[in-house]
Amino acid sequence: MVCRKSSGPPHWNAGLLKLFLVLVFCPLVFCRPAEAETNSPVNEPVTNPGSLLVSSGYGPPFHMWSERLYSNFELATLSLTYEKESGLWPFTKNKELVKSFLLELQLSRIWGKGIELEQDQVSQETWDKAVQEGRSPTVDWDHYQIALVPYYRFYYPLGQKVRLYFEAGFGLALLNKPLIEDGTIWNFLINGGFGLDFKFKRPFTISLKLQHFSNGGDAQLGITDKRVIGPENLMFGFGMRFPL
Questions:
Q1: Which of 124, 181, 223, 226 is disulfide-compatible with 216, CB 3.0–4.6 A?
Q2: Residue 176 CB coordination number (10 Å)
Q3: pTM for the complete prediction?
Q4: How many CB atoms lie within 10 A of CB 133?
Q5: Of 83, 216, 86, 95, nearest in space to 150 by CA
Q6: What are the C-alpha distances in Å from 160 to residues 36, 44, 167?
Q7: What number of H helices and E strands is found in the chain?
Q8: Model pLDDT for residues 169-203, shown as the tens digit of each residue
Q9: How far apart are CA 87 and CA 109, in angstroms?
Q10: d(CA 163, CA 197)
């Protein structure tokens, strides 16, 4: 078989992931519970105004839902996000989570060389040429993508100035050109992950999330009659919050 599927993400990804997890979970150990730091009732209504978040992210390739790991490419993002906290959600008997809605405008750059593809992602001519040369068909990427992604987020208070959050989002994205032969310029974009929100003099966030973008999954789903692809990235992010 010409195409060799990768067994998983590069080893250095695991090192970055471990470092990030240490940074995220240190506050779980060293921060006092929020209710120990304030005399406010636990069920006090959320009255925080909306805010804007300006954030950036970087993501090496990762593999979770796609048929293969699309190695040898990188993704960087710059995002502008509007957030509005929308109330409390009961979590335990003595703890409630803060619910929040976000709408993100994301600009991405996708780049890399020698990304291996499957047979159904290239023309027959390209596939035959790769077989004759004893290799998998490859493609180079130097693309830009813009996306609009609604999110839903839950905050868990760790202290007066630190909150742990979990989020998930689903939106639409538009490329400047297709990633593969006879592909599409539009994609679905799915994000999910967690992070920390710090309420210091200048509020900021750090995050870790999985980003998956594709133009429809299996062609059998009938979403598109074009060739499909679904790259994934493990995204490390940093953002600044500006209250409105």
A1: 223
A2: 11
A3: 0.80
A4: 10
A5: 83
A6: 9, 14, 21
A7: 2, 8
A8: 999 999 999 999 999 999 999 999 999 999 998 99
A9: 35
A10: 5
